[in-house]
Structures are given as structure tokens and as C-alpha cells.
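stage 2 :: seqdesign
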């Protein structure tokens, strides 16, 4: 078999002529335009086999022949790699007649060896006339006239490498391009047999594309129809690796879509992909060229007519500032073809469009009608239900689904399952609402014959502070995460049959139920309970805060003197107590009532009284304390006298359980011991000493039972233990911050931090085998010593100084088993520690759907590794004192965490480290390990698919990042280089030059300006590239970038951080955009346009007043509006901002002879957001104007002069970290001539004018050594328009006058402004457009007039060619003298 072997492609169109030409280093070839069948609405070009065959065909023999074929400029097909057409036998004559010679060449394949880069721009498309474009990133196969029945068909157009498809700069928002296109990132098969698989990854980058309609398919297209021969190889257009789709600043039109998976039609067709990542920012679906009612971003594939389009791994959808109607996590098997497309055939659904991994959807500042967690098999959710012939197929999600709504996102409905039978979520499905600015109308669990087989949950993020007003239908769990404070309604509609409330945050809700069960595993503040019917409130592990009148027939009353609680009242009888706490916030209570209430509560539920105890003066004697560990008296202290029944031989042994504020111990008692099987809770308050001893001498506390500091339901949340504690049982910290001086843990003991508690321990000693569990809190230890034994850390633990022992092992995380869940750990070890060769093993079990945030981690701050560190499955280790944010950003972008081919172990090294046998150190990073095996001292091992992120900033010349006795690096491991570097410098990863180390191909750079050349010996040389060459016209500040990269100190660090993408996935455009915004944040926030707009708005108000009443008067206008700039021009990339503004203008006008003169003042506030770079301007503005009017002949002349000041407070988050301010002033003068004509039925006032605006902006510092200079520009506008008005008088004598005004405003002189920036000894001139070439203004208004008063309301809309849209509302009032 002859196989075409080529160099990696990097294709750009040269001259399409009748078709489209490509050129590479070997040869050139031409593709003719082709026909294509009309697309179905949802299935996106799943076309019947015959239709595909009739579209076009190719004879392509090793690039040496090319049949011209039929050229039809109506449709065009563009292919990124090689293609083949052998033509099925039954169509051979037809194809020959249409396209010329189609003799099959035996043994020919059209495979491509190496990577393919395919670039498409408007210049290419505009060279051909067409109505429809079909674009494939990889190869294309049509049919076979070989003997397919033998199974030896050679119809292959595979790519054995990665495919990158770049579509950029096509059309504009105001003038969309004619492009009506369907894009497949993979290859295509147009008949029942053939293979166009991409054996690698596919990346599709789309930016600044505004089309008539555009649909992006991440995978390939397999269009097979019915198989012709029983043994024919299947039609396959799969992608074996990942699919990544990056879209920014584009509009796909109302029928546009992203289908991230593959596309299959027909029995025995396959278009699978490995995994999916979609990142969309400022993607809209607004263009209405076609009347379509479906725009969608779908994470899975499309399978129809018994096809298979699965995602074999996970799906990540990251959507910002976008507005698709639908977002769907899974795929679709629905056959929604029209009857004429079925051509009398059966309606078969696809076999499978399942997602075999997890789904993660994030919407930020986006507006979406419906979000669907899983897939679709029936179409019922779209109102387009169809019934297939034989089964609905599989559109399920095998793992968990997480949907996160952030920023100011607005969503109509969220479905946590799918649509139709076979579209279940087989794991958990969770909606996370990050903050109270997010709005959601409805959230559904099971719906449309689709179920969540795990838990259907709604979680509120830590920043959520407010009321949730949406409906909850079939939701099983509500979670308030730490810091959240959520008010909502727990009623029959939202609770349904059963609802669990969980989390460390707080829910506020009156509970009104006549049916259903609420299980409380979190915190609920309910001032009112109304429980009836068969409803139940179950207090399980959570805390209910209320008052006694809601639970008992007798309440404490205002003075807290009632001594009996009576019985459980109607509400109380509907409460089931199985654990947790119930806190009563009555202001006063007494011990008799507390005992009575405790007798009515069962199931181990704790009672917490947060009021003041009124029947005990002073402290409560230990002998009088009731043995009741389930009642906590938050404000009561217990005293132990030396004559107490608990004291013997200087030791007070407490053999009862209780909860109080603190314990006070008398002189003569040296030890307090908590007996086995007893528990004491001390909640403290105001940093109180929790167990205080009187007298001199050594004191001690021994815990054989349980000692808990704090309780989630108590109002007291702090305290300290200054006496040494020996824990033989369990010591806990819950729901507050507590200081502990000295703790010794013994065999089998546990130190547990829960309920968002914080334990600060000065000294901790470990012996035997103990556990430190901080899964729901944090433990900080200043000095820890391991005496012996193996110990386990779960949750968050930080140790400043750890002294280890050579035969001990610290396990970070637990593997779990059949009875216990896997738990992750996070351990930080300080630089002063002495580990003495101890073992540290990181390993929580990885489960499908987990990300690196679910992994165990170790931060090791020492440069000398004196422990045997093993990062096993689902874990990573960090060496150095650097933050880990950059390291963590790698995963889920450049590197997949987990899965069959993903990374499950990693290391981030930001300082030179030494691993030697002399120090008893070793490092193993191997995700296959699930149990600790002591490595050889002095060895460094990186296993298969492990990752090293190497920050070389601190390395000196010739210094190796890792010095070790031996290295063993797997060929599938990779090293990503980050940090500050020196041009021409050679850096060394390892001191070993010939061993089993990272090869040149395994070393990659994180900053595009640093070119890396491997030296074959574990070292690499960096060469600084020119920013202008790398970023081109994407960046205005190339000189600043170059200067910063060669500077020293902070300037270099700042620029390097701005330009570095550790993930390897951010586009050059987004990096340049971030850099330019950091250099000129005012320009990025369009402050020049904002000041200009405020001055023009003020003039419009003044001019409208001047042109109306001529009577002396006082007037006032209240105004507000929104301005969107969706791509205003700059010297590089277009800028997208959104401004909200509101203010007031007041004025007075009088008359002198034939002149009307007036003065006006304005003031207001607002904010401008640029979400692309995470920047905001919170501004105030002020204005003053002097205006007048007179009549010359039959023409009215209006004139004014004004000054407007904009005071900007600008912030940019992230790496830039900018907080600065500046002033921009606009000086203006204008004149307008107008004449009012009485048409009988209305008054018409045409006008023409000239307005001059001088914009001047003060210079400012943007921090980090960046200085923006003063700038100024002058624009001249020529408004030309007319106003029409009609007056009506009501029966009551009020005059009503509706008005409509329309003006066209061309602009001359300056429309843009130059703003010079100085940084690191260099300067760059930034250019920003602030005015449109032409603007269209419209305003609709109405005014009501009485004798002396006028009231009016206006609504306006302005459009500008710089992608401007303004909406304004204005109310006005005036009084005539």
C-alpha cells in the first residue's frame, strides 16, 4: 500500500480561483467548490449518503493528479488535510459523468503524518462567491469502488497528529459576513465506509467572526447511510485525543451553534472524541438573517440513524458574556430530520451520544434560556418531540455534572438531568449559584423521562448573600457553602417529597410544610415553623436555630422564667431528632426549663441555649451539673472546687457529659481528666480560657473520652487552652477559632476540626498511630514532633516546624475502602523542619469526574529534601514558597487531570532542590501508586503521564533545578517552564546530563516570548523573541513588553507574569489583551468615550430645554442608561465594555428681550465593566453649561458652552492588580439652527448643527512602574435631523404632547485619541477610538403640561458604527414663572 507521508501542515489559502488552493513545502493542490444538502435544525449537517455523494468527488493520487470536476460557486468545501474519493460502484458512472475519470487506484491512502494547522480569514472567503461553506480541519473520504466486501478497502484520510483550525476576523457585528457555514474540527466520511480519524488532539480557535450563521462541530463527521457490504469497514471520523474549542468576540447568529463532540449518521458509523473543552467569551447569537429558534452550545456529540458519537472522557464548558438559548452538557441521539429528508425511510435515533466522564459547565455574565445537564434523546425539552422507530439511544452522562453560574448570569430554567429516556445523569448533578447577582427562574431535578441517579443538588457559593426567589422542582439537596447567607422559601412547592439542607453556610427560611420531609444536615435559621399534615423536619447532623415557642407548648417567655416546656407543640411533633443541634435564641432562660426541654428531645440532638441563665448567680458547681452531653449552656461557666466529688489526689475526673462556656478549676487541683465514654463541649467566648487553673505548679488535661471546643449552633466562637492536653480519645474544634498551647496525641487518637472550625496549635506531639482530620476546617501547628508510628492527615493542615523520625510515615489523604470514602489531605511543611528521612505519602483514590482540586497536596518549603516524598494517585507536591495558582491552572486546560490518559501526579518546583542519600531524601511522582513503597534514598522518579512545572526564576547560572543521585523519567512525562528568565541563558532542569531525564521534546515554555531550545543534556537555552513579531497587530504595547522582558526586578516580574500562560491554552489574543489593559487601563475601560458620552448627553438635555418652552422657568431632569461597546476600535484589538450611568441635571432659564438665557448643572455616577480583562471603572461626573436661544429671521438659533468632568476610579483584578484614578474633562461649544413647521396634523422641526468637543485626560500611574501620559483630542459633530410633535388637550384641561426625534450625526476631525504609556524606560503610543464615524440617534417622548408645571418622560436609543448601542431613560419636570 502506498501511503502519502508529508511534513506537518501549516496551510494558508493562496488563491482559490475556481476552487481553493493550499500550499506547502512539497506541492500545491486545488479544491473545487461543492454542493451540500440542506442542514437539519438540530443535527447540523448529518446528511444522507447519496446527498453527500452527489455533492462532489475527488480523484487524488499522491498529489500528482487532480480532476477539475464540476465547479458550483454556490457552495464551497474546504479541507485542512488530504482527501480521497474512490466512489462506490453503483455511482461510478454518475460520478464519472459529473467529475471526469474516477478509476480507483489500488492501494492508495490519503493519510497525513504530522500536525495540521489550517487558517481561514475573510480575505480567503471573499475570493469566491458561495452561499454555504463546509469546513473540515482534517481529511475527507468519499466512498470506495474497491471490493469493500473483502474488508480490505483503503479509503483512509487519517491525520496522525494534532489538528489546529483557526478562523479569525470575518465580518463585523454591524455588517455580518455572508458566511453560512458548518465546521468540523475533525475529518469527514461521506459514505458507508472509510476512515478520517484524527489520531491526536483537535483545537478550533474562532475570534472576531460575525457570520450569517455558523455551526462549530468539535469532532469529525461520519455520514454512512446503510452499509453496502456486510464486511465493510465502518465509516469512522473520530478524534482519539481531546477537542478544544476557543471562541471569543463573535456572533454565530440565531441559528448558530457549538456541538463539541462528533457527528454521525447511519448504522455502523462512529464519530467519537476523547474529551471536550469549550471556552467561549463574548459569543452572541443575535444576527437574525435566518428565522431560527435554536442556538445552542452542546458539550457532547450528535448521533442519528443508529450512529455513535460518544465523548469517551469528560466535558468542560466555560462560557462568559454569551447568550445562547440553550446550553447542554451531553450529546443528542434525536433524529429530528424532516419527513422529506427521511424520504419514506424509518426514523431511527442514534445508538449513543453518551459522555463517559463528567460534565462541568460554568456560565459567567451570560444570559441563557435553558441549561441542560445531560443529553437529549426525544427533543421534548426543545418543544420538538419525535418518536423513533427503535429505541431512543443513549445520551447519558456517566459521571457527575456540575453547573456553575457566576457573575451576573441570568438563566431561565436549569434541568439537572436530560431530555428523554436514556439521558440520565448516572452520578450527582449539582447547580452552583456563586452569588446573589445570579438569577435563576426554575431548577428541575428529574424531568422529561430523565433522572439524576445520584443526588440532584443546588449549592450556593461562599459569596452568596441574599434572597433566592427561583422555583425548586424535584431537588434533593440544598447546600450553603462556607460564608453563604441564603434566604429562601422552604414550602411544599420547593421541598417536594424530600429535601436535604447541608453545608457550612446559613439558610434563613420560615418553614411552612403540609407534606414532604426536610432533612437538616446544615444550618437553618427559622424564626417561624408551620408544620402540618404528614410533613417532617429531621434534624440529622445540622443545626436549627429558632425560639422555644416554635417547638414546645410552653415557651420561655420574655423574662425566661417558665420552668416547664410542657410538651412538643404541633410543630415539634413534626420534628424528628436524630442528631445535630437545635439552638434557642430566647434572650433569657433557666436551668429547670432547659432540663425539661432536654427531656422532650431525643435521638442525640444537642440543645443549645444562647441566652442568659437567670436562675444561677455566678458559676455552676460541677457537682450540680446535670449529666447531659446534649445540652449546651453557651453563657454558663462551671467551677470545680477542691472539695468536689470529682476530685481525688489532686485530679478531677469528670465522669459526666455536658456543654458550657468554660471550666474554672480551684487551687490544689493539678489535673482535669475527662473519663472514657464522656464528652464535654466548651464554647468559650471572647477568647476566654476554656479550662482555667488557679494556683502554681504544673497543670494537665487528659482526654480519655471526648473534648470539643466550640459548637456550630452556639453564638460563642472563640477561646483558648493554655494547659497541656494529652489526647487518648478525641479532641475536636467546631464552628469557631480556638487556640491550643500543647497537645500530645497517642495511639488511636484523633484531632478533628469540623463545621468550618479553625484550630491554632502551638505544639503538637504525635506517637503511636494518630489522625489529624481537618476535612471541614483548618489546623495550624507551629511546632510538631513525631515520636513514632504512622499518622494520617486529611483536610487542611499547616505545620511551620516539623521534626520527623526515619521509620515513621505521614499519609496525606486516605485511599478509602468498601466501607469508607476516600478523603484528600492538604499538608504544608515549613522551611525550618527536620524530617530525618521520614516517609510522606499522598494518595486519595481518584474517581471519575475529579479534578486537581480533589487531589491531595503537599507544600514543602525546604530546599533540601530530607524526607522520602511519594506523590501517588491523585496528588501533587509543591517545592518552594510560591503560590500554587499558576500550577493549578495547568490542569483542565493544557493537561487533563485523571482518566485513562490523564495526569494523576504532578510536582511544581520554584526553587533549586537537592535530593540525596546523605539527607535521606527521595522524590517519586507516579500516579499509578496506591500504597507507600519506600523509594531509594537520593532518587527522583517521574512516572508515566506525570508533570513537572518548573519555575526557574531563582536559578543561577549552571545551577540545576533538581540535584539528585539518580533520575528515572518516563518518556510520557513533560516539563513546563515558567518564571523570569534571562535572554540567551541556559537553564538546567537536572544535574544529571546523560541519565534517564526529560528530553528536549518533553520541555515546553509557558511564555510565548521565550523560545526554548533543548540541548540534549537536561538543559535548555532560552531566547527572547520580539513581542511585535510574536503578537503582531494583536498588541499595542510591544515596545513595553520588550522593555519589561529585558528589565530587572519588579518590571520584569510584572511583564513576565502578564505574558505567561502556564496552562498553554490561552490564545495570543487574550494574552495581548490582558497586557495592553494592564499598561493602559483607562483605554481598556473606554474612559475617553465615557467622558465624551456624558458631555453629549448633557448637551442633549440642555438643547432640548432650550428648544421647547420660552417662559422663564426652573427645570430638572433625572436620567439613566446603558451603553454597550461591542468592539470599539483601538490600535490593536477591539474593546468591549458596558457602561451603566445615572444622574440629574437642573437648570434655570430667563428671558431678556429676544434672548432666552439659561444655566444648567449636572451630576451623576456609574460604572464601566470590561469583563475580557476583569476591569471596572466606578466613576462620578459633573457638568456646567451656559446656553441661550434667539430667532434670526424665521430660524431659531440655539447655542451653548459647557464643561464636563469625569472622575474615574479604575481597578483591574488578577495579575495586573491595578487600583488607580484619573480625571477626564470635556470642553464643548455648539450651535444649532432649527425651524418649526406647522403641518396641521403635527409640528415638524428640522434642525442642523455643529458641536465641538475637546477631550482632555490627565495622566496617571497604573502601579508597577507604569505611567500613562496626558492626552487630548478634538471632535466635531454635525447633527442633522428632525423632531415631530403633536399636542392633545384632555377633558380635564391637561395638554399632552408626544414627540419623536431622529438625527444622523457624522463626526469630523479627531475620532480617536493617542495615549502614550511609559514603562521600564520605553514608551508606546496607544490609540483608542472614542467617537463613531456616524451615529444615529432616536428618542421617543411625551410631555404633560398644566398651567405652570410640565412633566415628561423620554426613551432613547442610539446606534454607532463602532459597534455602539445606547439605551437611555429620562424623566423631567419644570416650573414656569
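stage 2 :: out
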Amino acid at each position: 500500500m502506498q501511503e502519502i507521508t508529508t511534513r506537518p501542515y501549516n496551510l494558508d489559502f493562496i488563491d482559490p480561483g475556481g476552487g481553493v488552493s493550499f500550499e506547502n513545502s512539497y506541492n500545491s493542490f486545488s479544491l473545487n467548490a461543492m454542493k451540500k444538502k440542506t442542514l437539519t435544525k438540530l443535527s447540523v449537517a448529518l446528511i444522507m449518503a447519496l446527498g453527500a455523494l452527489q455533492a462532489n468527488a475527488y480523484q487524488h493520487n499522491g498529489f500528482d493528479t487532480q480532476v477539475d470536476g464540476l465547479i458550483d460557486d454556490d457552495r464551497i468545501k474546504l479541507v485542512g488535510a488530504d482527501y480521497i474519493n474512490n466512489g462506490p460502484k453503483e455511482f461510478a458512472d454518475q460520478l464519472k459523468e459529473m467529475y471526469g475519470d474516477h478509476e480507483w487506484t489500488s492501494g492508495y491512502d490519503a493519510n497525513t503524518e504530522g500536525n495540521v494547522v489550517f487558517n481561514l480569514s475573510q480575505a480567503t472567503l471573499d475570493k469566491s462567491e458561495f452561499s454555504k461553506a463546509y469546513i473540515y480541519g482534517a481529511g475527507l473520504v468519499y466512498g470506495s469502488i474497491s471490493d469493500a466486501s473483502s474488508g480490505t478497502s483503503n479509503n483512509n484520510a487519517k491525520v496522525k497528529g494534532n489538528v489546529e483550525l483557526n478562523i479569525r476576523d470575518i465580518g463585523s457585528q454591524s455588517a455580518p459576513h455572508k458566511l453560512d457555514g458548518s465546521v468540523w474540527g475533525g475529518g469527514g466520511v461521506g459514505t458507508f465506509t472509510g476512515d478520517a480519524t484524527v489520531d491526536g488532539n483537535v483545537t478550533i480557535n474562532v475570534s472576531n467572526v460575525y457570520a450569517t450563521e455558523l455551526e462549530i462541530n468539535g469532532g469529525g463527521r461520519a455520514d454512512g447511510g446503510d452499509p453496502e457490504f456486510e464486511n465493510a469497514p465502518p465509516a469512522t471520523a473520530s478524534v482519539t485525543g481531546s477537542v478544544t474549542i476557543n471562541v471569543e468576540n463573535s456572533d454565530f447568529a440565531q441559528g448558530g451553534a457549538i456541538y463539541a463532540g462528533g457527528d454521525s449518521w447511519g448504522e455502523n458509523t462512529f464519530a467519537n472524541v476523547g474529551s471536550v473543552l469549550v471556552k467561549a467569551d463574548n459569543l452572541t447569537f443575535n444576527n437574525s438573517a435566518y428565522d431560527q429558534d435554536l442556538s445552542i452550545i452542546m458539550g457532547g456529540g450528535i448521533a442519528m440513524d443508529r450512529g455513535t458519537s460518544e465523548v469517551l472522557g469528560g466535558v468542560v464548558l466555560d462560557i462568559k458574556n454569551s447568550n445562547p438559548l440553550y446550553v447542554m452538557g451531553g450529546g443528542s441521539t434525536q433524529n429530528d430530520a424532516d419527513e422529506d429528508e427521511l424520504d419514506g425511510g424509518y426514523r431511527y435515533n442514534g445508538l449513543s451520544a453518551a459522555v463517559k466522564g463528567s460534565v462541568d459547565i460554568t456560565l459567567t455574565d451570560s444570559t441563557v434560556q435553558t441549561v441542560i445537564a445531560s443529553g437529549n434523546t426525544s427533543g421534548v425539552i426543545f418543544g420538538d418531540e419525535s418518536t423513533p422507530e427503535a429505541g431512543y439511544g443513549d445520551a447519558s452522562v456517566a459521571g457527575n455534572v456540575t453547573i456553575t453560574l457566576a457573575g451576573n448570569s441570568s438563566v431561565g430554567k436549569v434541568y439537572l438531568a436530560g431530555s428523554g429516556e436514556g439521558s440520565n445523569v448516572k452520578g450527582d448533578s449539582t447547580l452552583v449559584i456563586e452569588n446573589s447577582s445570579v438569577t435563576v427562574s426554575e431548577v428541575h431535578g428529574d424531568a422529561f423521562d430523565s433522572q439524576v441517579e445520584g443526588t440532584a443538588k443546588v449549592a450556593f457559593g461562599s459569596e452568596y448573600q441574599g434572597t433566592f426567589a427561583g422555583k425548586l422542582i424535584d431537588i434533593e439537596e440544598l447546600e450553603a457553602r462556607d460564608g453563604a447567607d441564603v434566604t429562601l422559601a422552604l414550602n411544599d412547592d420547593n421541598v417536594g417529597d424530600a429535601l436535604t439542607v447541608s453545608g457550612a453556610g446559613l439558610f434563613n427560611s420560615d418553614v411552612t410544610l403540609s407534606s414532604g420531609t426536610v432533612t437538616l444536615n446544615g444550618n437553618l435559621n427559622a424564626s417561624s415553623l408551620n408544620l402540618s399534615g404528614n410533613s417532617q423536619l429531621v434534624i440529622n447532623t445540622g443545626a436549627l436555630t429558632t425560639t422555644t415557642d416554635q417547638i414546645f407548648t410552653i415557651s420561655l417567655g420574655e423574662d425566661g422564667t417558665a420552668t416547664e416546656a410542657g410538651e412538643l407543640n404541633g410543630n415539634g411533633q413534626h420534628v424528628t431528632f436524630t442528631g445535630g443541634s437545635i439552638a434557642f435564641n430566647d434572650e433569657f432562660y433557666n436551668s429547670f426549663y432547659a432540663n425539661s426541654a432536654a427531656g422532650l428531645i431525643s435521638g442525640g440532638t444537642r440543645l443549645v441555649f444562647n441566652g442568659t441563665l437567670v436562675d444561677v448567680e455566678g458559676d455552676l458547681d460541677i457537682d450540680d451539673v446535670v449529666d447531659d452531653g446534649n445540652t449546651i449552656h453557651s453563657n454558663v461557666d462551671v467551677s470545680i472546687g477542691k472539695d468536689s466529688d470529682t476530685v481525688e489526689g489532686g485530679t478531677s475526673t469528670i465522669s459526666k457529659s455536658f456543654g458550657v462556656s468554660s471550666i474554672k478549676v480551684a487551687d490544689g487541683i493539678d489535673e482535669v481528666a475527662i473519663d472514657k465514654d464522656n464528652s464535654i463541649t466548651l464554647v468559650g467566648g471572647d477568647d476566654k480560657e476554656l479550662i482555667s487553673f488557679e494556683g502554681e505548679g504544673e497543670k494537665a488535661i487528659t482526654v480519655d473520652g471526648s473534648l470539643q471546643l466550640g459548637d456550630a449552633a452556639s453564638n460563642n466562637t472563640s477561646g483558648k487552652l493554655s494547659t497541656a492536653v494529652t489526647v487518648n480519645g478525641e479532641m475536636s474544634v467546631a464552628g469557631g477559632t480556638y487556640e491550643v498551647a500543647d497537645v500530645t496525641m497517642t495511639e488511636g487518637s484523633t484531632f478533628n476540626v469540623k463545621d468550618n472550625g479553625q484550630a491554632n496549635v502551638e505544639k503538637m506531639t504525635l506517637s503511636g498511630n494518630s489522625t489529624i482530620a481537618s476535612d471541614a476546617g483548618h489546623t495550624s501547628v507551629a511546632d510538631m514532633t513525631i515520636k513514632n508510628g504512622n499518622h494520617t492527615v486529611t483536610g487542611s493542615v499547616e505545620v511551620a516546624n516539623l521534626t520527623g523520625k526515619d521509620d515513621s510515615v505521614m499519609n496525606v489523604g486516605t485511599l478509602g475502602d468498601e466501607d469508607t470514602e476516600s478523603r484528600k489531605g492538604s499538608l504544608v511543611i515549613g522551611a525550618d523542619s527536620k524530617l530525618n528521612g521520614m516517609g510522606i505519602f499522598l494518595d486519595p483514590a481518584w474517581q471519575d469526574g475529579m479534578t486537581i482540586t480533589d487531589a491531595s497536596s503537599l507544600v514543602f518549603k525546604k530546599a533540601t529534601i530530607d524526607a522520602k516524598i511519594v506523590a501517588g494517585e491523585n496528588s501533587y507536591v509543591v517545592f518552594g514558597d510560591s503560590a500554587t495558582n499558576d500550577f493549578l491552572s495547568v490542569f483542565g486546560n493544557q493537561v487533563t487531570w485523571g482518566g485513562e490518559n490523564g495526569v494523576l501526579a504532578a510536582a511544581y518546583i520554584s526553587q533549586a532542590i537537592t535530593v540525596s542519600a546523605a539527607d535521606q531524601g527521595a522524590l517519586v511522582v507516579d500516579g499509578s501508586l496506591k500504597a507507600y513503597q519506600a523509594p531509594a534514598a537520593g532518587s527522583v522518579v517521574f512516572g508515566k503521564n506525570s508533570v513537572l512545572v518548573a519555575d526557574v526564576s531563582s536559578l543561577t547560572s549552571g545551577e540545576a533545578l533538581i540535584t539528585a543521585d539518580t533520575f528515572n523519567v518516563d518518556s510520557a512525562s513533560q516539563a513546563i517552564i515558567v518564571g523570569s528568565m534571562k535572554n540567551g541563558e541556559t537553564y538546567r532542569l537536572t544535574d544529571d546530563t546523560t541519565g534517564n531525564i526529560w528530553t528536549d521534546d518533553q520541555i515546553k515554555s509557558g511564555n510565548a516570548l521565550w523560545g526554548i531550545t533543548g540541548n540534549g543534556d537536561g538543559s535548555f537555552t532560552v531566547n527572547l523573541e520580539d513581542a511585535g513579531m510574536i503578537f503582531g497587530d494583536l498588541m499595542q504595547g510591544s515596545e513595553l513588553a520588550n522593555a519589561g522582558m529585558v528589565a530587572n526586578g519588579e518590571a520584569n516580574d510584572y511583564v513576565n507574569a502578564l505574558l505567561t500562560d502556564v496552562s498553554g491554552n490561552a490564545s495570543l489574543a487574550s494574552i495581548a489583551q490582558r497586557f495592553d489593559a494592564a499598561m493602559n487601563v483607562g483605554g481598556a475601560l473606554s474612559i475617553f468615550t465615557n467622558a465624551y458620552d456624558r458631555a453629549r448627553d448633557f448637551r442633549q438635555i440642555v438643547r432640548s430645554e432650550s428648544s421647547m418652552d420660552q417662559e422663564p422657568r426652573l427645570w430638572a431632569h433625572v436620567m439613566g442608561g446603558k451603553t454597550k461597546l461591542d468592539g470599539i476600535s483601538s490600535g490593536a484589538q477591539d474593546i468591549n465594555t458596558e457602561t451603566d450611568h445615572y444622574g440629574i441635571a437642573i437648570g434655570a432659564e430667563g428671558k431678556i428681550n429676544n434672548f432666552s438665557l439659561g444655566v444648567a448643572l449636572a451630576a451623576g455616577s456609574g460604572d464601566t465593566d470590561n469583563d475580557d480583562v476583569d476591569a471596572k471603572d466606578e466613576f462620578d461626573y459633573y457638568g456646567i453649561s451656559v446656553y441661550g436661544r434667539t430667532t434670526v429671521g424665521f430660524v431659531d438659533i440655539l447655542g451653548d458652552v459647557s464643561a464636563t468632568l469625569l472622575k474615574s476610579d479604575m481597578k483591574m483584578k488578577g495579575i495586573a492588580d491595578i487600583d488607580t484614578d484619573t480625571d477626564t474633562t470635556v470642553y464643548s461649544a455648539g450651535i444649532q439652527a432649527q425651524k418649526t413647521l406647522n403641518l396641521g396634523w403635527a409640528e415638524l422641526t428640522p434642525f442642523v448643527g455643529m458641536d465641538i468637543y475637546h477631550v482632555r485626560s490627565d495622566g496617571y500611574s497604573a502601579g508597577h512602574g507604569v505611567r500613562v501620559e496626558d492626552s487630548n483630542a478634538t471632535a466635531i459633530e454635525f447633527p442633522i435631523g428632525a423632531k415631530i410633535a403633536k399636542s392633545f388637550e384632555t377633558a380635564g384641561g391637561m395638554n399632552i404632547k408626544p414627540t419623536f426625534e431622529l438625527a444622523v450625526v457624522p463626526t469630523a476631525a479627531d475620532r480617536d485619541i493617542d495615549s502614550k504609556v511609559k514603562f521600564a524606560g520605553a514608551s508606546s503610543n496607544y490609540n483608542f477610538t472614542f467617537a463613531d464615524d456616524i451615529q444615529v440617534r432616536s428618542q421617543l417622548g411625551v410631555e404633560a403640561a398644566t398651567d405652570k408645571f410640565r412633566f415628561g418622560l423620554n426613551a432613547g436609543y442610539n446606534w454607532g458604527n463602532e459597534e455602539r448601542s445606547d439605551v437611555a431613560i429620562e424623566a423631567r419636570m419644570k416650573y414656569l414663572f
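stage 3 :: structure notes
- Confidence is low (pLDDT under 50) at residues 1-73, 95-107, 147-152.
- The radius of gyration is 36 Å.
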